[in-house]
Amino acid sequence: MMVDIEPAKSSYLRDLQSIRSPSFNRDTNRNTFAYRLSELVFGSLLASYILGFISFASASAVATPGHINLIMTSLFSWTSIVILQQLLISILYSAFTALLYVNFHQSILYLSTNQRKSSTDFILAMAIGISFGISMIFPLSTIFWLGLLTAGVFLRRDNLLKAFTGHVALKIAEETGGKILAGSAPGGEQDSQKNLIEPIIPEVMKALMSSQHPVIRSWVSETTWGWKVGIGAMVSLPIAAFVAELIYWYFFGTLWLLGDYYLRTATTANVAGCAAVSVFFLRRQYVATHTMPSQENREDTKLDDALNNLLRPVKAQILLTAKTE
């Protein structure tokens, strides 16, 4: 009887023996303290959203004289909109955190070559928890904090991708005979390394962006103009309103107080916005979850092979260029 024996997983790519395979990076990063700490923080955040909603909702639903049923009192009053707003803020942050968790497992664990020293994800998770608390206290500021957090997530991804492509370019240069000169002046070695890998990085990026593998495509997906405009509006509009209020206070000596009509209109708009963004994040999280590699189906090995096949022509091109010079 034939036995299907799974081949041993290689620590390096098949045709680039100095570049760690993505699956090996993932397995190594899973054993680090930074990974365990990030897992703990993600779980704690999801629990805090539930407790935060219950706490703020119970404080908003205050019984009035002559009414016995607190639920009926809140249901047919403006309080129901306030409670709905707090519920949607909790759902919004839950969906956002779940999407970041999937992104953490889909990109950071695969791309990071030194997760042991990484504290960025922990700081980002703490920022999410603090912004959630501020959003529950000041609900109309939710869109502002969400914009800042989204910008931070994109910045984290871009920096990680930059470090990964630089690492890959350096290893390809070394495998094709490139050498880093020490140099006589301070910083000469860094300048030599920069000059060595600069022509290779665009080729590595071009190869990654040509991939049809969903995980690799998620690594290099560009921040579209729609995202940039959306994040810019989410951050700049609240700042503009705050500056306008400061100017009003400076000239008139009092705060710019909105009437009940405008306040309720802003709250209703905030409820609609939180609901729409929550649906968007939940959909993105669902799609990202279903593209993650499965160890049971050996899809992590397919990811290693896909990356190897993308980078092999880059190495061959650099090697051919080096021979013709």
Brief write-up:
The chain is mostly helical and 325 residues long. The chain has helices at residues 22-29, 33-60, 70-75, 79-111, 120-137, 142-175, 188-197, 201-209, 214-220, 225-252, 260-289, 299-324.
Radius of gyration: 25 Å
Structural class: mainly alpha
Domain module tally: 1
Oligomer designation: single chain
How many helical stretches?
A: 12
What's the average pLDDT?
A: 78
Strand content: under 5%
Q: Quick one: overall form?
A: elongated
Order of helices and strands: HHHHHHHHHHHH
Give the % helix.
over 70%
Give me some keywords for this one:
single chain, elongated, mainly alpha, 325 residues, disordered N terminus
Strand-helix topology:
Layout lengths: L21 H8 L3 H28 L9 H6 L3 H33 L8 H18 L4 H34 L12 H10 L3 H9 L4 H7 L4 H28 L7 H30 L9 H26 L1
Helix pairs in contact: 1-4, 2-4, 2-5, 4-5, 4-6, 4-11, 5-6, 6-10, 8-12
Task: Describe the fold and architecture.
With 325 residues, this protein is an all-alpha fold. It is built from twelve helices and no strands. It has one domain. The longest helix has 34 residues, at 142-175. It is elongated, with a radius of gyration of 25 Å. The model is unreliable at 1-8 (pLDDT under 50).
